[in-house]
Amino acid sequence: MPDPLDAQIGGSYANGESVSRDRSYLISFIWREPGSGEVHVNLRGYPGASKIPTCSDLDTDKPVPCFSDLKGNVRRGDIVARVYTANQGADQWHVLYAWRHRGSLYAISEHVTPPFTYARVVRNLNRMLTNLVLVRPKS
Amino acid sequence: MRLTRRQVLVGAATSGLGAVGLYELVDRLTSSPAMRSHGRLHAEQHLLDGLAVMRDNGVAVSVPPLHHAVITAGVVTDDLRGAQRKLEQTLLDLERRYAPTPAGLGVTVAWGLPYFRRHVPRQADVHLPVDLRASRTRSRTTRALTDAIRFPSDPAHTILEANDVAVLLRSDVRAHIEDAERALFHGSSILHATSIRRGFVGSDFLSGPSLAKRMAQAAGIDGAELIPDDAQLFLGFTSTQKAALGPRRIANFETLGYVDLGERGYFRNGTHMHLSHVFEDLASWYQTFDFQERVDTAFKPGLEAKPGVVTVSQGPHEAASAGSLRRGFHRDGRIGHSSSIQSTSRLVRDVVGDDGTVYRRGPRSRNAPTSIPSTTRSPGARARNGTGCRIRLLRVSTSWSSIRRATTSVAIASQWTASCPTAPAFRSGPAIAIRASTPY
Predict the structure, then answer these.
(1) Quick one: closest CA in A to B307, which residue?
(2) Over pLDDT 70: what percentage of chain B?
(3) Chain B positions with Cβ closer than 8 Å to A
């Protein structure tokens, strides 16, 4: 993960984890220092669902795709992720990679904000995508 | 709360390039401008011959000059007759040196109310054109040239400028603009420049990232990477669709019969110019609005456009009416930029012009859109401070008249500029432009 995040759930940079009724989950890591900037990464999973979820538009309250503005694909190993740049909810202002695996949708996103530029965030996401490890559920 | 989060985060740091250094990048980022066809001087000073036309997404697009500069100034002499002769000679020299085409140079000189009031109040009272429709609405005589006013959406630090004159210079060749700047302002005993706004526009819709995108990236503007590769302007859409541009003389004071020019018609063939700034946040534009939302906002809600296109057809038959705007607003709670302008800038019926030309319903009464994505102010230029740049829309309509030719002309343009967000916002008042000399 981008420095200084350490991907430790429950660790110093953990920003909470949540599981919804539909079993979709969000795990967030953040480092923030006033005047210096912010590093914020979200990981999402939608077990059993492969469609892009729907969010409520902040202006109109109308349903809109949570991930939008497809900017192409990125392949890392067995994963072919789609790149989205206009996203909703906790992923707003983030570049988001989304991919499908065995009928489920997964996503990882990072906030585009200092100290990281858009290009650096893309490099960070590429590296994270390359190094993802599949964790099989234990129960 | 879209902007709230953004507002607490400092924008991406800009590069160390000053505005002038940034502007010089245009030369490096563009190939040698293709020679465009020869032109002739028209009665309308704003008109440039030789504008190329390209096609993108099946839409014909007019190609404006690559470079622009708008210089505002004050008149610093009381010898108006002498100033008139000198300025006219300078303009004539420029006209001899450069063809009135993008390959040459376009010069438009606009005079503002401060000039008319300070220097020639009696003549202005006689000759300044009267807006007939506004006069009817207000039940009193209303000039076609009025003072700029403060709008509710203006930031508190907005400064309404009061310049005597504004000069618009346009060319594919930056050196031509610099030459004109030197000729008109350097060491001048007539004009004292108060600000300079520089800019550029361009995309060939074919070969890699456009000039607009590369310049935004070079400047380190937040969100620059998200500008579509073939975007003519920072916000990702083409603004110079040929079918949306009015016939050349449509914006002249006298053309549509909206203006009373008085007995002598001093400002015949003239129009007005207005400079304004709208600050845009590219990162917000591209990261919180998806493509359809950008189309909704730039054009009109619900407009169908193929994802990713930058050139959207804006022909006469696609113009929005005031009624459709109202219905759309009630339905969606939104009004698009272009459609809101169309309800005022496009003819709602065919009009026969003063010279017998039939102006058909639909085309807008503007004819020279341009784009200016970098700005400097001089003297007292405010340095970029590393907090990131915002983009602002400079909507310009220009007019001029010529004592020499007893003619005036018109241009209305949209110019995108970048500026530092910490600098006060400046808005120049409207002006009437004149060729060759100080008016009267």
Answers:
(1) A69
(2) 72
(3) 1-2, 5-6, 9-13, 223-226, 283, 286-291, 293, 307, 332-334
